């Protein structure tokens, strides 16, 4: 890819602006001394099995794919900080606006009456439907809450698409990169200080959980050993962050969620995202992956990402 998309910068010397309160683990806002821009820093995670995960490369590879799809998203970079691998996500907020995560929007919308905010460790429960998980984090409620909101200012598609129409593109992107983490703190709106201006959908951010970032290389190799195994793994990409019954495995797939969203959007949105998908050219990303161009991504992790992208692309084109 052009523009040094895969370069890893050492940001140990960057000054700390603040800690991000909405983060699930530690995330720190840093200031780029050259430009004054704010970037959100996160270390990769090393779980109990001791195998460092790929939250850093999954962020930058998925950013490259979002750009190819025309999905507005945060700029990201690979980094090192105090000797640790990590990633940076450039602040998507625009001047004169404040970022509010989806849960604030859903909670405050007077026309959304069955949304129960989810907090890690304290799941939202609807007393009338206690068996339902993530109650109210549903497409119809999101569409209602986004009514009147416009597309992100960086959206380069048709001007007729509104915020929900563009959100559909986020779901298409999630299904392509197998990002199961689109909970209501992983999408947001930018609310202007001046009430005469419209609310905007925020560009997409936090794609760290994509492309099989947390698998071991052994697991990747087993899954790649035959097509059925990969298809099975991909079909486990469920939309468990959205309202569903039963366990996470029984939630609808990310592909089905996108297909459902497409039916709710405008005709222009349907036409636009279908065209974006059909004309998607992954060759350059797949080539970089297969040539081992992404730092810290093993050969088998790169191969897994290539095969997964190719497979999910087929699933998505079949769905539209
Ligand atoms: N690029 C960005 N611009 C503005 N706000 C962001 C950006 N990335 C993340 N955030 C905010 O920081 C919070 C935590 O960041 P996120 O990347 O989602 O970390 P975590 O992996 O802990 O969920 C998000 O919920 C969002 O409110
Ligand atoms: Mg997040």
Polypeptide structure, described:
This protein is an alpha+beta fold and 320 residues long. It has a domain at 8-90: Phosphorylase Kinase, domain 1. 35% of the residues lie in helices and 15% in strands. It contains 10 helices and 11 strands. It has helices spanning 55-69, 102-108, 139-145, 163-177, 217-224, 227-235, 254-264, 267-278, 283-290, 299-319, and strands at residues 8-10, 15-19, 28-31, 38-43, 76-81, 84-90, 97-101, 132-133, 188-192, 200-201, 244-245. It has a 6-stranded mixed beta sheet, covered by helices on one side. Strands 7-9-10 form a 3-stranded antiparallel beta sheet. A hairpin with an 8-residue loop joins strand 2 (15-19) and strand 3. Helix 4 packs antiparallel against helix 7 (254-264), helix 4 packs parallel to helix 8 and helix 5 (217-224) packs across helix 10. Residues 185-186, 206 line the site of magnesium ion (MG).
